[in-house]
Amino acid sequence: MSDLGTTKQQNEKLGQSGLGRIVGVDVGGTFTDLFYFDEASSKFRTNKVPSNRGDEAVGFLDGLKGFGAIADLSSIVHGTTVGTNALLERKGARVGLITTEGFRDVLEMRRRDRPNTWGLWGDFIPVVERDMRLEVAERTLADGTIRLGVDVDAVRVAAEKLKAMGAEALAIVFVNAYANPENEEHAVEAARAVWDNENLACSTQILPEIREFERTSTTVLNAYLQPVVGSYLGKLETALASEDFAGRFHIVQSNGGVMSTETARRLPARTALSGPAAGVIAAAAIAKAAGFPNVITGDLGGTSFDVSLIADGKAALAAQTTIDFGLVIRTPMIEITTIGAGGGSIAHVDAGGLLQVGPESAGSRPGPVCYGQGNTRPTLTDANVVLGRINADRPIGGKLARLDVEAAKAAIEQHVAKPLGLGVMEAAEAIVKIADSRMAGAIRLMSIERGHDPQKFAAVPFGGGGALHVAALIREVGLKAALVPRYPGVTSALGCVIADIRHDQVQTLNLSLEGIDVAAIDARMVEEAGKARAVVEDAHLTVERIDTLFELDMHYVGQTHTVRVTLPATISGGNTDVSQAMIQQAFEDAYQASFSRLLPGVPMRIVNLRTSAIGIRPSFDLKALAAPVDTTVASATTGSRQVWFDGAWHETTIYDRLQLPEGSEIQGPAILEQPDATTVVSPEFKARVDLYGNIIVERKS
């Protein structure tokens, strides 16, 4: 890693001098969460407002206005699920694809996988219909040789035809273009002569990497999202302009870094897991400061439960992700598993007489039955209200005066209790236990099935509902403890504020390590670092320095899959200190760590060069979130109420969580309430408040 630095003069040139007021905004399916931070005074505030699905700008602006004049803000960083939702709901743009003759069906052939691994049935419909995939004559060989130049007249004709057929975005993908982009570049130039919008890109601009399906899929899905994400960002920018906002507006990427809205418009596929990634970044920082390097995060919002694993303080990055079957995006993303189990997930008895929770969600409109906005089917939130775990008189978000407990009971009785022959309380508890089981399954998938011992990990539950289920997650999975952040309901918004600026790019090299031209590798690394750094600088956010990270995808000759190899290379004086010996040693270390053996005598090959530029943001002192020092446990106690645990009512002490001082010891059963979330400490658990205001939940014995 190299520290290229960013001088004061450079920051001033980019308009980055001085500290300002920054707001992180996470728009979820039910609530929009906001975290305001004044960099000069180190003061912060939080806000939580209902999301407005279909016109997210409404909740977005409502939340910002809670901090005063929007014009006074210097920066807004936004985590969005617009791209994710468009992919899952198949509501992207109509895309046209121009590809090499004979390769129009790459999207359908995929890797010859199938939706049901052990069955011979199932179907897959690509996001680009077959008649919207047109072929032109051209051919580039794997070594970059142009055997047949592209027919630019055919490209223009194809582009005009696709436009006439209603294409809103155009993708150009030629075979082996990663080895030589010349034909694609000529095709883009020809298509632009007849294409009348900015939604046009070729694969070498999106993913200049070997493997035809992954490159085609990523390029096409990027085009699929361009009009959707571009329109969404345009609406937000127009709304902000109407409030005289003149600061910088940025978007969180799926890799946990931040990018400019210009980059987001060009590479919308990188926003696919934007919102959840911000939460993981914040959870990692909070856990590390609290002394928990190994944690499993669980973001429980209104519509989903997102799980990620952090080992040794680092979130795991995946080279690609599958949003839904066949929808593959190959770009670095934080590894996150998502299931449809949120506070708004609807509970129902299926045709086989089994109780199910989710994946359908009531969202924010109409929301759970207890919201009184027209929904009549019970949700997980309704079950928690009926069990007494959520205070009906203090709903989170502050927009509803009271939750309708009786309506929630009636819905549970009609849709769950009667069909299953249970009492209302037993049915409500069954709903919670089913949800707990699904969440525990997602955590096992991220831990046990990947070789990690959950007993060495702590849970970090956040989102509006994560802390409601903290004890169940410890018990079900066998985790050693749980750490509930100071403001769990706005953790993802906090992540937007503290996330670094980041840009990742990849270039296929396909070189044998033996006799490698080190000077050529050095030149390519410096060139790629310069490109990545330029994107980071263009974000115009204050950074302390810009680090560059180099990685190689390598394997032994004859192998199909690669190993990710981190190079300890640095840039100094316009050159790197890379050498053949350095590359070989780094590969052998990585291969040994993965497979516990080497293959002596087998030649090694470099497949891809990966370059990351990371603009390190000024550090956020998490002690700013610390618990008060002038209160006591007694003064933070607000009363008690009956809460249902394990088939019976328990008299449960209620606390104002934000008034609990550092060092507080709480014995379960207890409920810790705050404006953005509720923490439930079951009877067999205890809790304490640490230096940073976090709640540490552990078993009593």
Gap between N and C termini, in Å?
A: 45 Å
How would you sum up the major sheet? 9 strands, mixed
Instruction: Decide which structural class fits the backbone.
Output: alpha+beta
Q: Tell me the quaternary state.
A: single chain
Mean pLDDT over the full residue set:
90
Strand content: 25-35%
Radius of gyration over alpha carbons? Answer: 26 Å
Number of helices: 18
Morphology: globular
Characteristics:
28% strand; 38 strands; 18 helices; alpha+beta; 701 residues; nine-stranded mixed sheet; disordered N terminus
Structure description:
This protein is of the alpha+beta class. The protein is 30% helix and 28% strand. The chain contains 18 helices and 38 strands. Strands 14, 15, 16, 21, 24, 25, 34, 37 and 38 form a nine-stranded mixed sheet that branches. A six-stranded mixed sheet has the order 4-3-2-5-12-13, sandwiched between helices. Strands 1, 26, 27, 28 and 31 form a five-stranded antiparallel sheet that branches. Strand 22 and strand 23 (355-361) form a beta hairpin. Helix 5 packs across helix 6 (182-192) and helix 12 packs across helix 13. The model is unreliable at 1-18 (pLDDT under 50).
